[in-house]
Design a protein that fits this description.
The chain has about 400 residues and is α+β, with helices and mostly antiparallel strands. The radius of gyration is 31 Å and the shape is elongated.
Length: about 400
């Protein structure tokens, strides 16, 4: 039966027009990936942008959640630009203020993470400071105790007490590396995007972070108790400050080494997955180095599905002003740029290659929108000078080149 069914379908399809090979390939890709979670699906990519904005945002969030090395929005593909964004999104303190808006970890979660790290570092500093104090006491009074310590034990205590001043902060800083890995593992576990168990996993991750916060409070209390018992709270604070500074120095060393170690691999993988792109851009993000305009176009989609958002970045002529446009149908809503005045002409080029010009009408202030009516999508600005004056620029009578 399958044989006859397939034969009948082939006969019926002979008279149908041939489809674009790209459309056929895209359909096959969607069929292969339709049962996969969204993070495993390949976002639709055009020559220099993502066609499917939700998929682009999902890819961006996944890259940020797992400390990506290449493809940050606003970068030009260079090593330094990506490393700068990598640090801004991963540093425990800096990322609270400068992490990307699409990062799945919000400011409150980052503050929790920083509090956990500081609490653990403080407790370790208290333990090491007390150990130093015990060694110093053994060095100073070991021979006078009853029973007294042996000369070798006293000498060892004196040597250890001197070494603790240098080794203590280093040990406390080194402990932050595995602690950082464990805490981030819990944070990533709390962000599972697109799975059927998404809400369950997010709840588990949230409870894990609450448990970590309880542990952090417990560690902080233990640190204060040990500092009070040791009678050297100032020494604990000094050790803690040195340990924290050294831990952030170690962070830059670790991030620099790991970034350069995996940068080329991440770059190759990114460009293989998204040909023609150097960064993940969405409709709300301009590409780095572009002084063009962002166009948000309603598109029917490749296979006739629901409307999808198309992101374009167009490089305008040097004499034009930067404007943001939203194009519904044949009416263009132009946002008056900063510094522009009524009567000023604005020229821009659409993704289809058509050159359009508009005149800012009277009474329009910077930041306000004004409509511009266009003709068919293929219409272009003629070589003759456009009409002067305010109001709307009627382009319906322009001829094609």
């Amino acid at each position: 039966m399958d044989f006859f069914r397939k034969s009948t379908e082939k006969i019926m399809k002979k008279d149908e027009p041939e489809e674009d090979p790209e459309v056929i390939a895209k359909r096959k890709q969607i069929e292969r990936e339709k049962d996969l979670p969204p993070e495993s699906q390949t976002p639709t990519v055009s020559a220099d942008h993502f066609v499917d904005e939700p998929a682009a945002i999902l890819a961006l969030k996944k890259m940020l959640a797992y400390d990506g090395k290449y493809g940050f929005p606003g970068t030009d593909g260079s090593r330094w630009a990506n490393y700068k964004q990598h640090v801004l999104n991963t540093h425990p303190l800096v990322s609270i203020f400068y992490a990307h808006d699409e990062h799945p970890f919000d400011h409150w979660e980052r503050a929790q993470y920083l509090f956990c790290m500081l609490s653990i570092t403080f407790m370790i500093s208290a333990v090491l400071t007390n150990s130093q104090k015990i060694s110093r006491d053994d060095c100073d009074t070991g021979l006078e105790r009853t029973p007294p310590l042996s000369p070798s034990e006293v000498q060892q205590a004196c040597d250890t007490a001197d070494n603790w001043k240098i080794v203590g902060p280093i040990i406390a800083a080194m402990v932050t590396i595995p602690t950082d890995m464990v805490l981030k593992a819990f944070m990533v576990c709390g962000w599972v995007q697109g799975w059927s168990i998404q809400e369950t996993c997010e709840s588990i991750g949230g409870y894990c972070m609450k448990i970590q916060m309880c542990y952090a409070v417990f560690f902080l209390i233990v640190g204060f108790v040990m500092a009070a018992q040791g009678g050297d709270f100032g020494g604990v604070c000094v050790t803690f400050l040195f340990a924290q500074v050294e831990s952030w120095v170690l962070f830059f060393i670790k991030s620099f080494v790991l970034f350069n170690l995996f940068f080329n691999g991440a770059k190759s993988s990114f460009r293989k997955k998204y040909p023609g792109l150097v960064s993940i851009e969405t409709a709300g993000l301009k590409r780095s180095g572009s002084t063009g305009v962002d166009l948000t176009l309603p598109s029917p989609g490749l296979l006739g599905g629901g409307p999808k958002v198309v992101s374009h970045t167009v490089q305008p002529p040097a004499s034009t002003q930067q404007v943001n446009l939203q194009i519904p149908g044949e009416q263009i809503m132009v946002i008056c740029p900063e510094g522009a005045t009524p009567g000023q002409q604005i020229q821009f080029q659409t993704p289809s290659g058509a050159l359009l010009m508009a005149v800012i009408p009277d009474g329009v202030n910077p930041g306000q929108q004004f409509p511009v009516l266009t003709g068919p999508p293929q219409a272009q600005v003629p070589k003759a000078s456009p009409p002067q004056g305010g109001g709307l620029l009627d382009m319906r009578n322009f001829k094609k080149k």
